[in-house]
Every structure is written in structure tokens, then in C-alpha cells.
């Protein structure tokens, strides 16, 4: 499965975080070396294997601190060395870079988005083209609706969205763009959202 991993480097301190590290360890290590940094923090949007695959290797090599929502840890019994729970609206400081944790259940019980001043890292909650599936253990289309409504309310329209996967559009589209082009941002009634998200025989499960 193709995933996006994101590296955040605080310019003043050079402290570094990586979001949802998975699959290509060699490429990630080379990128750290090229940047002259190491991952002080590992930020996890949720516990699915394609988002946490490289956590043990990075923790062993760099002694990184690992962060995931308390709800996700408790429900799915996620384990890692150096693991710390996060709570809704908790702030993490990476040097001078402040990140706010937004609890956005729907894809999983404890999915998190990480909000910076002009970036939102969404994991599998929302994609540029759609939103995450709600059929796996702990998934809920009702909660997904509420999470998207919350993002619409709390995240400024200029903020750029960086999802865990893309299905045609490059990462980094703005909330403004999603409001116009992501069909799941168009629903204002939960019942209609749920019926559409859970309809049968979807040819493009993640984004139409």
C-alpha cells in the first residue's frame, strides 16, 4: 500500500517529527541524513499497520518519543517503547513549532489529526478526494460526519491538508479546496452523510 510519510523540522531548534512512518525504512533514514536531523518525535494518526509499520525500528535506532491518542491506544491495545498518550486539543511543542491534536474518530476510534499554523496532517480521516472507510473495527460513519464537521469549524480555510494517501490529487490542497471539491465536505445532515458513505457497491471506496 502506498503511504505518505511527513517529516516536520523546526527551523530554529532542528527538532524533528515524523508522521505515520511506514514501509521504506532505507529511504526515510536517507532523508533524515540528507536533512541532518533525527526523529525526536513520532506522531501517529492511528494504529493501522500501514501507518505504524516502522515505529519499532525508528524507536530502537533513534530513541524517539511516540505519540498516539489515548483512545486509540486503549481500544486497539497499541504498544510501543517510549509511548505517550495524547488527548483532544492537547498541544505538542517541537522547538518553536506548536502542534494541536484534534481527535477525529470515524476511521478508527481514536484517529488524530495534527494541526500546525498552515498545515493539517489527517492520516485516514480525510483525503483530498474523500474520507476514510468506516467499516473496520472501531469505525463509525456517524463519528466520521462529526469529525469532518469539526474540521470545517476549527481549521482555517487557508490551511493545507496532508493525508496519509491520495487518489489523484497531490497532497497540500487547502481546506477551501476541499470545501468545494470533496463531496464529504458537502453534507450538512448526518443521515445523508451516513447513507452515502455506507452505500453498497462503491467502485471508488475512498473518494466518491
From TrEMBL:
Under the heading SUPFAM superfamilies, the entry gives: Metallo-hydrolase/oxidoreductase
Q: Which residues cross the membrane?
A: none
SMART domains listed in its UniProt record: Lactamase_B (SM00849)
Q: Write down the CDD domains for this protein, in alphabetical order.
A: BaeB-like_MBL-fold (cd16275)
Q: Which Pfam families match?
A: Lactamase_B
Q: Which keywords fit this entry according to its UniProt record? A: Hydrolase, Metal-binding, Zinc
**The UniProt record lists the keyword Hydrolase:** yes
Residues of the Metallo-beta-lactamase domain? 2-165
Molecular function per GO: hydrolase activity; metal ion binding
Give the InterPro entries listed for this entry.
MBL_Glyoxalase_II, Metallo-B-lactamas, RibonucZ/Hydroxyglut_hydro
Its needed co-factors are: Zn(2+)
Protein's name according to its UniProt entry: Putative polyketide biosynthesis zinc-dependent hydrolase PksB
Organism in which the protein naturally occurs:
Dictyobacter arantiisoli
Instruction: State which gene encodes it.
Output: pksB
